[in-house]
Amino acid sequence: MGPGPITVDPRILSAMSAQLVGQYDPAMTAYMNETQALYREVFRTTNEATVLVDGTSRAGIEAALVSLLSPGDVVLVPVFGRFGHLLREVAERCGAEVHTIEVPWGEVFTLEALEAAVREVRPKLVAMVQGDTSTTMNQPLEGVGAMCHRYDALLYVDCTASIAGNPFEMDAWEVDVATAGLQKCLGGPSGSSPVSLSPRAVEVIRARHSVEAGLRADPESDEDTLPSPARIRSNYFDLGMILDYWSEKRLNHHTEATTMLYGARECARLVLEEGLENGIARHRLHGDAMLAGVRGLGLEVYGDVEHKMHNVVAVLIPAGVDGDAVRAEMLNDYGIEIGTSFGPLAGKVWRIGTMGYNARKDTVLVTLASLEQVLRAHGADVAPGGGTVAAQQVYAR
Ligand SMILES: Cc1ncc(COP(=O)(O)O)c(C=O)c1O
Hints:
Layout: H1 10-15, H2 26-43, E1 49-54, H3 57-68, E2 74-79, H4 82-93, E3 97-102, H5 111-121, E4 125-129, E5 131-132, E6 137-138, H6 144-150, E7 154-158, E8 177-179, E9 192-197, H7 199-206, H8 239-246, H9 258-274, H10 276-296, E10 312-316, H11 323-334, E11 349-353, H12 361-377, H13 386-396
Parallel strand pairs: 2-3, 2-4, 4-7, 7-8
Antiparallel strand pairs: 1-9, 5-6, 8-9, 10-11
Helix pairs in contact: 2-9, 9-10, 10-12, 10-13, 11-12, 12-13
């Protein structure tokens, strides 16, 4: 019940135990096509360029930024938690000129504040996180893409923690590039990063396109003769080459991580079988129950609760209680993992997730009942049954 990774849905585990097939086996290429179509629905987009990047969510982030950014490009990164800092760092490593704006952790940006910064900085790219897991905040994105486009900037969003548990509307919100991971509300393991690119973003990447010499019929030909200054500065994360591999050209690049493909495909199948909206409603319900439950235990919730992601809550560790000892006892005595956070919030909050396979009534109630026992053993003044009763009231609505 931490902030992810979470307990994987057994159907995904089972899909991932299937035998491997060859890279160009028709079954494999059909799975690739099917997975692209599934993730278009998950991202709520018609983007043809919707693929998986092999690696954890961070691989998707690196692929997006290194493929979009040339050295010297101006980037704006609005930071409201740890993962905004990560975007800044990756953009810096791409050689971009990075500008940041910040709000205190536990808050989000207004559209006006974002626009003021874009007007001033005039970036090529605005790179931001939707749900920053470190603070649990969910940045509103409606209108942000249209605003960026008015200033000729592209919008990149890391929706790893939020997608499938909170609304994410790639096309309606005019997001140019989105990257995700499986280990949160998609209910899978880490290790595959679904990525989607708008035609505008594809155009930027295509302008930097290259083909490896060993793949050309005549390696000495002038076709795509490089290096050119424009060439994307990573081979593995070159989204142009990754798109060629996922297109009907099937131009060889890496060997697709077959087992992760099976897993990613099953994650999306599960989400869409439930219905994206139903799944989001489920995350909202169990998130609300957990929120009411921790308050019912007398705990204080961190941050601007109105902008909290549905799937994770951060609670302040009560004064005098050893947060790590409580987490250890939850794990050792009750088999339940909860998290703390990073940087300024390390040891100050517990983060409790209700996501993917773990967004269920039984997991919420058992976590609250266990937390009550452990807190009492650590001298905290908790109302008997306060957590489960408050959660049950949410379920009874
Ligand atoms: C919002 C967000 N972005 C990026 C990451 C990095 O993901 P990974 O550890 O899968 O590379 C995480 C991980 O928790 C995350 O929550």
